Structures are given as structure tokens and as C-alpha cells.
Amino acid sequence: MMRGDKVFRVVEENCFKEEVRIKEMDETEVTMQVLSTIPVLFNYWAKANDGSETSRFFNDHIAETVSKNPKRFIGLGTVPLQDVDLAVKEMERCVKDLKMPGLEIGSNINGKNLNEKEFFPFYEEAEKLGCVLFVHPWEMMGEEQMPKYWLPWLVGMPAETSRAICSMIFGGVFTKYPKLRVAFAHGGGSFPFTIGRIEHGFDVRPDLTAVDNNINPRDYLGKFWVDSLVHDKKAFSYLLEVVGEDKVCLGSDYPFPLGESHPGKLIAKMKAGKKIEKKLLYKNAEDWLGISH
């Protein structure tokens, strides 16, 4: 994969061939995957019509893959959020025609935070359609200042996800659209682990934090989902305590190296009991997606 004239990532067949993916799913005891486009292909930087065209291409490919393997895959679409009207149009096609339960979107849109009023018509339509949103970090802030040591992925990504959550909370998105079902990647990034600092900031500087929404950010815990990909038992225990056992879904980041090579192994190590394990392994994801298998 190229990004301009530079190699971004070398991908293998498990990124685009379902037969290879299904084989690896079987080897790691994964019965069902939710497919989504790699964030670098959001193409928010492109001209809107071009972004719309590539979105249609990716969405058609995912929908075709799901239609051939409906017992193994569920698909999420992507939309050209650099143009909200075109994004809404493609969202409607994804939900109504391609029968997708939702979309994957970036943690920012060309540097714009997710609380920008221009995105509100998009959230309004997503709520009406019952279209779930999966927010994945990309274009990490500070990336140019820390290019070494893989820091954009190790440091920038968790911060980027927290940026998205805080933007939606402080911007009043969850308050204005309470039926919107949103999940955030990588355990919600650094948000769950800095909620004390965020709440304290809300308490001591409401003149800076509560300008668009005066509800305590801690009150939104339990109002959105996160995935389980935190790689650490203590971090996972804390995540469960803070976010709640009903709002954590199994996440794998498959097939990339920062993911969990055998999805669900960390959950198994937690020994939380069969009831909670079922929630974490699939029931919470079903609730978020609005499906039942």
C-alpha cells in the first residue's frame, strides 16, 4: 500500500481474500468477523466525488464478501465525510441496499473534530436509520513530531481515540442523539484511564470545558461501547470496571501486528465467569450492532 510516493504498509492476502481469512479464523476459533476498511482508505483527503466513488467500491466489495459468507462475516461501510451530503447518501445505500448495520469512521475528518456542527446532520440520519458507528483512530495528532519508534501507533492512537470520545461528549453529540450507537476502537484509547483527569478539568474549568454541554463526562460511561484490545489483564479489569461489562466488545485488530493474534485469549485469562465471557465475546457486539445470531 502506497501513501503518496512512500510505502505505507505491505499487506498480505488475508486483507482482501476471504478464503484466506476464513482459514485463519478457523485456526483461531473465530466464528464471525465484522469487516471494515483500513482507515488509510477512508480517503477523506480526496475530492468529495472521488471519495464517494472509492467508498462505493470498498462497500460493494465488503457487501459481496458478506453475501458469499453470511455466517462468517458482517460488514461495515465507509463514507466520504469530507462532504456530509454525499456521506449521508452513501450511508443510506449501505444500510438500505447493502443491508449493513453501520459504518466505520475516523477519529477526525481532515483535522476536524467529531463535535463540529457540520457533522450533526450525519449523526441525525445515522440515528434515524439505526446505523451504528465504529470510530477508529487515524491521522494521529502529533504524528509529524514523533515519527520514530512507531510512536504514532503506540502513543498517538490512544490519544486520538480519547480525542474523538471527548469531542463527542463535550460537543453534546451523545446528548443530542441519545439513540446513536457508537463504539470506539482499542479499549477507548486513553479515555478510560484519564477519565479522572477529564472529570476534574470539567469541574474546575467549566468555562473552558462546559461551553457546549454542561453534563459531567463521567455520566457518559455506559452510553457507548469500546473494544477489548488493551493487551494487559490489569488494564482490562479496570476497563470493565469503568466502562461496564455490557459495553466492552471483543476486538482483534486482525490481521495487523498490534492486534491480538488469537482473539479472545485475554478475555479467557480474565476468568470472569461464563455469563460475562459471553457478553464480551459476542453478546455485547450483537447489542451494539442491533443483530442476533
Characterise the protein shown here.
By secondary structure, this protein is an alpha/beta fold. The protein has a single domain, classed as Metal-dependent hydrolases (TIM Barrel), CATH 3.20.20.140. Helices cover 43% and strands 10% of the residues. It contains eleven helices and nine strands. The protein has helices at 18-27, 48-68, 84-97, 120-129, 151-170, 173-176, 195-204, 206-209, 233-243, 265-270, 274-289; strands at residues 2-3, 6-7, 33-35, 73-77, 102-106, 132-136, 182-184, 225-227, 248-249. The strands form two sheets. It has a seven-stranded parallel sheet with strand order 3-4-5-6-7-8-9. It has a two-stranded antiparallel sheet with strand order 1-2. β1 and β2 (6-7) form a beta hairpin. α2 (48-68) runs parallel beside α3. The longest helix has 21 residues, at 48-68. The protein is globular, with a radius of gyration of 18 Å.
Helix-strand pattern:
EEHEHEHEHEHHEHHEHEHH
Count of all domains = 1
The largest sheet has its strands arranged as 3-4-5-6-7-8-9
Q: How far do the termini sit from each other?
A: 35 Å
Number of helices: 11
Name the poorly predicted regions: none
Largest sheet: 7 strands, parallel
Q: CATH topology, which one?
A: TIM Barrel
Strand content: 5-15%
What is the CATH architecture term?
Alpha-Beta Barrel
CATH first level: Alpha Beta
What is the number of strand segments?
Answer: 9
Question: How large, in whole angstroms, is the Cα Rg?
Answer: 18 Å
Spell out the CATH superfamily. Answer: Metal-dependent hydrolases
Q: Helical residue percent?
A: 40-55%
Structural class: alpha/beta
Whole-number average pLDDT? Answer: 96
The 3D shape can be described as globular
